[in-house]
Amino acid sequence: MMSHGSSSSAFQNDQSVSSSSQQPAGLSRFFSQSHNPSQTLEDAFSRLCVSASPFNYSHSASPFNYPHSDFVADSPYGINGSSKIHPYNSWAGGIPTSQTANLWHPTFTFNNYSCHADGCLDSKPLTRQIENPTFSGVYPVVPFSSNGMMSQKTSDNGFLNGGILGGNGFNILGFSFDERRLRWFNNFRGCVLTLATDQLMCRTLQETLKTLTREEFDIIFLELINHVTDLMVDPFGNYVVQRMMELCSEEQRTQIVLRVTQCNFQLVRICLSPHGTRAVEKLLEYITSQEQRNRIMSALSPGAAVLAKDVSGHRVILHCLKQFPREDNENLLNVVANKCFDIATDKTGCCVLQPCINHAQGEMKKKLIASVMFYASHLAEDCYGNYVVQHLLSLGIPGVAESLWRQLEGRFFYLACNKYGSNVVEKFFQDSVEPHSTYISLELLHNPNVAMLLVDPYGNYVIKSALSASRGHVRNALEQLIKQNSLMMQSNLFGKKLLAWFNKGRI
Question: Low complexity bias located where (predicted)?
């Protein structure tokens, strides 16, 4: 009969043998590295640093100190800011920190969901699921890209191709990325409009649209198409619409065009919004068919004059000139020509009218130039219109300078003393060819009050330009004018500057 002590020793030996034959591969390696080969299974487990709660695991208390970098990904596909994993260390997989659920256990909590080994999610409050975590001998492997982010593949057209961790569709949660994306997609169906107008969620939605399959994107599109006009003028929704433009099919893009042009001046009102302008610009970039262009231009042309003078809407006019062929812009330019004076005398409009003249061809270009010529006398002394007249002179089109000179003949002395008109007169001397500059100089010299130009705040610049452009007897007449009035010029600030410049040029 064996003693109690010997019986206990035999029992422990039997247990040690049976445990070693059934222990996982990971524990076998652990025991093989121990300094005491005769230790029991209970002794080995007593030295393991396994917390009773997956949320009380301390990294500083861990015997495995590896260099790491925290990885944070945004929902709905990544780990949120409250969970961190270490992408690379000596082990295959990551070491959980104090904020990470126990990934080794078949059931753990994640993002307020209870995750099971079968890939199911239960929407329950975050709770501690386990009291006695068991070690299976297999560590989770978390693939990452070179920058520490979870790898994700998309196809060339922007839609999903494979899982978030590669083509196999598996991630660290134990279920496929497609499953997780589908769960997110189903949860937020019917709420996409609310997400699109939210400052934070609209960014997530923009990135999510690129990861959806074509079928899923079509469902989202149907949910938003009826609200696209409101979204285009929304401070946040317009960015979602811009992303949709990039992913839409030709048929879906046509639906958007029909939606924004179904009411009179609806597209014009959208363009007058600073947010809507950018959405319309993005739409114009992806317009391909002639039917779409005709529809867009028919809706924009009646409001061309309003758009040209608007600080936001004028961008759409310039975009049409850049993106569409000359034939498609005919109606729009025709409206601009008919409203030439109103546009040219506007701060924004004068900047639009100049490229309109540049892009126009044939008869339409002649009509725009003729419209400016008709109002040249008034435009030349306008604070904004004078820039349009100067632009015509700078183009160097044959006959334009002569036509403008005839329109302004007899008024050059008055314009030379005008703050804005003096710029036009100087432009004649700088860019026009003979004999127009000579005619203007003679008109100024024959005026009985010509000496007043020498001391005028604006006229003195005209005299300076006339001296630089004139030759022969005209230049001699101008020089004689300055010499005769030098004493008067000495007592005037502007005359003194002109006289100093004149004397310096003679040295």
Answer: 1-23
